[in-house]
Design goal:
The complex is a heterodimer of chains A (119) and B (116).
Chain A: E1 5-7, E2 10-13, E3 19-24, E4 31-37, E5 44-50, E6 53-57, E7 65-68, E8 75-79, E9 88-100, E10 103-110, E11 114-118
Chain B: E1 3-5, E2 10-14, E3 19-21, E4 24-26, E5 32-39, E6 46-52, E7 60-61, E8 64-69, E9 74-79, E10 88-98, E11 101-106, E12 110-115
Parallel strand pairs in B: 2-12
Antiparallel strand pairs in B: 1-4, 3-9, 5-6, 5-10, 7-8, 8-9, 10-11, 10-12
The chains are: A mainly beta (119), B mainly beta (116).
Chain lengths: 119, 116
């Protein structure tokens, strides 16, 4: 396992179409995150899974967006009825948490992202 | 709400010189973590350095070090002996622990160019 992978790397679609992205985290990581990054901005948090449970959802995640992580392994992010404003890089990250000295540590590893262009 | 501010959209440095990237953050949390991530052109984001808020000692990773000023809510990154491979976008990030998970907030980034 060499890291977080995402598929596809690029997606061009027409407005109104549905798209689905996949993220395969590092195998031993129980936490998985989705972010959106637009040009000139830092990543914006979308949602977070711990194992198969979706524990956090940003207000950025409208009802056209849905994410799943069946069996706590890979995750999918679906955007329905895409809009031009959805054009962005969608990043996935995974992490594990460990305890040391009474504190917990968490380090995220990012995938290469899926660049979405909505025409 | 947590905010992370990087006030330098672009910076450049001569190869082998030292450069400092600024980051400030706003939070009411006492237990949190700070990170610097590097995103080379068309490549994925990688962690450069991490600082735990409860630690007074500044983190160091080879040529990378931070100046963590908790009271001032400042977290700058110093890159010594800059190399061409350091050319990238650098993002400052803040993480707070919210049971059962945690939340990450990123700044808008600083584009660093190392000039040969």
């Amino acid at each position: 396992d060499t890291g977080v992978s995402q598929d596809p790397r690029h997606k061009i679609t027409k407005r109104g179409q549905n798209v689905t992205f996949r993220c395969d985290p590092i195998s031993e990581h129980n936490r998985l995150y989705w972010y959106r990054q637009t040009l000139g901005q830092g990543p914006e948090f979308l949602t977070y899974f711990q194992n198969e449970a979706q524990l956090e959802k940003s207000r950025l995640l409208s009802d056209r967006f849905s994410a799943e992580r069946p069996k706590g392994s890979f995750s999918t992010l679906e955007i329905q009825r895409t809009e031009q404003g959805d054009s962005a890089m969608y990043l996935c990250a995974s992490s594990s948490t460990w305890l040391a000295g009474g504190h917990s540590y968490n380090e995220q590893f990012f995938g290469p992202g899926t660049r979405l262009t909505v025409l | 709400a947590q905010t992370v501010t990087q006030s330098q959209p672009e910076m450049s440095v001569q190869e082998a010189e030292t450069v400092t990237l600024s980051c400030t953050y706003d939070t009411s949390e006492s237990n949190y973590y700070l990170f610097w991530y590097k995103q080379p052109p068309s490549r994925q984001m990688i962690l450069v350095i991490r600082q735990e808020a409860y630690k007074q000692q500044n983190a160091t990773e080879n040529r990378f070090s931070v100046n963590f000023q908790k009271a001032a809510k400042s977290f700058s990154l110093k890159i010594s002996d800059s190399q061409l491979g350091d050319t990238a976008m650098y993002f400052c990030a803040f993480m707070k622990q919210v049971k059962p998970g945690n939340q990450f907030y990123f700044g808008t980034g600083t584009s660093l160019t190392v000039i040969p």
